[in-house]
Amino acid sequence: MRDGTCSTETQKNRKKRRDPWQRVCTKMTKAERKGNFPLTPYYSNHLLTHSSSPRSHRLQQRRIHSHARTLDHLEERNTQDRTERYSEKRSALYNMASLIQALLDWLRSLFFKTEMELTLVGLQNSGKTTLVNVIASGQFQEDMIPTVGFNMRKVSKGNVTMKLWDIGGQPRFRSMWERYCRGVNAIVFVIDSADHDKLDAARTELRNLLDKPQLASIPVLVLGNKNDLPGALTVDQIIEVMNLKQIASREVSCYSISAKNQVNIDITLQWLIKKGKGK
Question: For bias kind Polar residues, which ranges apply (predicted)?
């Protein structure tokens, strides 16, 4: 009985010695299901890595550590994937914004950009070509070559593009005026307000031009250029000398300007742009 009792106690002691390992394995299995692999307090590094520990526990430790490394790798890969997806979404949003902006610019240019045609006429040396150059570049050039025939120049001001026809003012080119004034948004008649000897000829040419049936109802802007010179006429004097008050069949405006000093060029552009927009 004593031997049997001792034998039974020995077996119980062996079971008790095995119980901690079983409890460790059980706890580690529960922790594994939760996704946590703490080294303490469930088991000891020394205990599980010691050569005297059971082989099953050493294998369990390797499996747990391998699983942990796999989870770390997956987490790193997921982070990298999220970063790549974020970069792709950001790039897609940027491309979409660029596309929308390009579409808006195209629609704006299609519906809001205005193109207009203007014809500048007047006697020679009145400053038509100089005025066109100032409008286009904002710079004044002292010596300009007289226009032979005609010149055409496109000028953009904001969303308005103006096609300017500069027609020569010599007597042999005056017959061309009516042809290049057909269908334009406005006629700009330029005179030298300081050259009194040519005012009568300028008045006659303006009246002959406006009497053409094809040019009926086209607005006219009379510009008295070179008001920086001595003896230049004022606006009221230009209106009187050119008989502008007698013109009732169309809109007529008159400004005194200086292309050289860029005086009243801004209000001239405002008038032209309004006519281009149909105001």
Answer: 1-10
Do 261 and 228 contact (CB within 8 A), yes or no? yes
| Binding site members for GTP | 122-129, 169, 225-228
Domain covering 114-276: architecture: 3-Layer(aba) Sandwich (3.40)
pLDDT (tens digit, 0 to 9) for every residue of the chain, 279 residues total?
A: 444 445 555 555 555 554 444 444 444 444 444 444 444 444 444 444 444 455 565 566 666 666 666 666 667 777 777 777 777 777 777 778 778 877 776 666 665 567 889 999 999 999 999 999 999 888 887 777 777 778 899 988 877 888 999 999 999 999 999 999 999 999 999 999 999 999 999 999 999 999 999 999 999 999 999 999 999 999 999 999 999 999 988 999 999 999 999 999 999 999 988 887 665
Neighbours of 268 (CB within 10 A): 20
What tokens does 257 get? 């300007």
Q: Known binding site: residues?
A: 122-129, 147, 169, 225-228
Residue range(s) in the chain whose domain bears CATH number 3.40.50.300: 114-276
Give the integer Cα–Cα distance in Å for 181 and 194: 26
Residues making up the annotated binding site for Mg(2+) are 129, 147
